[in-house]
Design a protein that fits this description.
homodimer; mainly alpha; Farnesyl Diphosphate Synthase; two-stranded antiparallel ribbon; 16 helices; 2 strands; 76% helix; 1% strand
Chain lengths: 340, 340
């Protein structure tokens, strides 16, 4: 069930939309082809996989036109993700993405804003088509509305929090968790599961169980991402080593380290002085060592484990079919594992 | 029929979405309220008015829940327009909009990118809700897909054309017309009419007539906008006088002037030297005079008149009800009049 089953859907959809753009002007094709390569070139397709689990958990068919429509709804979230990344890279001033130049580096910020808008609007079109096949009603529309509003509001909150002068590490940790809840957990796990289940017209008890799993798992996934952002291998992550430190990302990991370093003002001062700037790999490595030395890594690892456990426990009693449970367990492990 | 009937719909919708954002974090409310003021504060609501005409032309009800759903679909295009303007102002580096600071000037470019995304996604939500009430099918989804892809592709084309080194005025005029066709005519008039008619499940002959009217009228509307962008009163347009000249916008008007000035190389050289920079009101006024002296204004006025005539002629034989015809005539005149 882990095959990249949305690739062909994305390819077909982007080919159709390429035709629509060509009808406006063929000179735009190089830009649209660059956008399509960005969408097709990588990404773990986590969101479509969770949507598909929700669909099966809710009693959706494994094959046939309805199953294909559910897969297309999953592909639609992947287009949202592409648009979000294009705009995110502009906002974060990130020059690389998945190990290659960001879209705005290749095509300019102005075109990248519009291409992001374009792929976001195609996401809605694809979702609307899939919904129509499945006769989706208000519950599906509501979840779709929520997932998009939440991820964008989560990003706005992330901006606000990153730029605030708040120095209290306890408040910083609380804010980081709130950003994680909406920008990652709801968007990546909880809402995709809910959408899949709602498309299958699932029992509310099943939807509740999936959302519980998703809320916990999604937070664990972000905490793993925080660890990879400091200690991850650039080859695996596709981002520079210690990227979160250079960027000055306000993560739970960093806030936890700052809390634990209050008794070590000298180390805390070094951390605060050098996080958020690129002073070369030696300094970045030293910062990572300060964080590791604070005990924050163990604390975050413990939290990940606790969240995975509570997330899986949320599935108890929902009487999900065994293959779906197995896939949800596998995804829980994959999305929070060190090598992901 | 020209009352601003979408204002209350927009207000209610934005209030509901404000609640969704507050559920993420109340600290975001000042930004969302600023966005709401931008949406509610002005705009001629041309697109909802054309959609409503299409709805009535297609046999849609004047009152009741279905009529209200059609109005909500019209309001959805107005939200698209708001998002497009927010992103456009970033791209064009415009510091004012409707006589006030642009959103990105007030809130920063990063937040404005996300707020633009937010209002674009709300547009889709609102359109999906309205479509569901009306039981809209594939024809409506296709028109909705087209209108958004066309306006964004039209903007991408506008960017490409503005930055090209093309100096041949005949090619420039052709490119400007192509941009106008998609960025303005389809988006502002033709597709809104089609959407309204398709939502009412109109006869294809009616839709064809409306689209013919819309394609011609929409081009005329843009030509009037070109004239206002050079000769318009800042108080009426809400933009600086001669704004298109300062911005260096590649309009049909400018291309026409350049074509006509080929026999006057000295004036052409002055135009080419000073368009696209802000050298003060005296220079801008002198440029406007060169354009007027070329005869381009009369040529564009003639073209507007011809397009209005051919647009209205496209309605002949579609047997539209007289009140709808009257409204389409009024809109044709309003959208292309000197004072608009």
């Amino acid at each position: 069930m882990t095959e990249p089953f949305v690739e062909s859907i994305l390819r077909d959809e982007l080919a159709d939309r390429r035709g629509d753009v060509a009808a406006v002007d063929e000179r735009l094709l190089p830009q649209v082809d660059r956008l399509a390569r960005f969408v097709l070139d990588g990404g773990k397709r986590l969101r479509p996989r969770f949507l598909w689990c929700g669909w099966l958990a809710g009693g959706g068919e494994l094959d046939g036109p309805r199953a294909q429509a559910a897969r297309r709804a999953g592909a639609a979230i992947e287009l949202i993700q592409a648009g979000a990344l294009v705009h995110d890279d502009i906002i974060d001033n990130s020059s690389t993405r998945r190990g290659k130049p960001s879209l705005h580096v290749d095509l300019g910020v102005d075109a990248a804003i519009l291409l992001g808008d374009l792929v976001l609007s195609w996401a809605d079109d694809l979702f609307a088509d899939a919904s129509a096949v499945l006769g989706a009603g208000a519950a599906v529309r509501d979840a779709w509305r929520k997932v998009r509003t939440e991820v964008l509001a989560g990003q706005l909150l992330d901006l606000a929090v990153s730029r605030s002068s708040q120095q209290d590490p306890v408040v910083q940790a609380r804010d980081a968790r709130r950003v994680n809840r909406f920008k990652t957990a709801a968007y990546t796990v909880e809402r995709p599961l809910q959408l899949g289940a709602a498309l299958a017209d699932a029992d509310p008890r099943v939807i509740g169980a999936l959302r519980g799993y998703g809320a916990h798992l999604g937070l664990a996934f972000q905490l793993r991402d925080d660890l990879l952002g400091v200690f991850g291998d650039a080859v695996v992550t596709g981002k520079p080593a210690g990227g979160d430190l250079i960027e000055g990302k306000r993560t739970v990991l960093l806030a936890t380290a700052r809390t634990r370093l209050r008794a070590h003002p000298e180390q805390l001062a070094r951390l605060d002085a050098d996080v958020g700037r690129d002073s070369g790999p030696a300094v970045t490595a030293a910062l990572a060592q300060i964080i590791a030395g604070s005990g924050a890594v163990e604390a975050v690892e413990d939290e990940i484990e606790a969240l995975v456990t509570s997330g899986l426990a949320a599935l108890d009693g929902a009487s999900l079919p065994e293959p779906v449970l197995a896939e949800l367990r596998e995804l829980a492990s994959a999305a929070t594992s060190r090598a992901f």
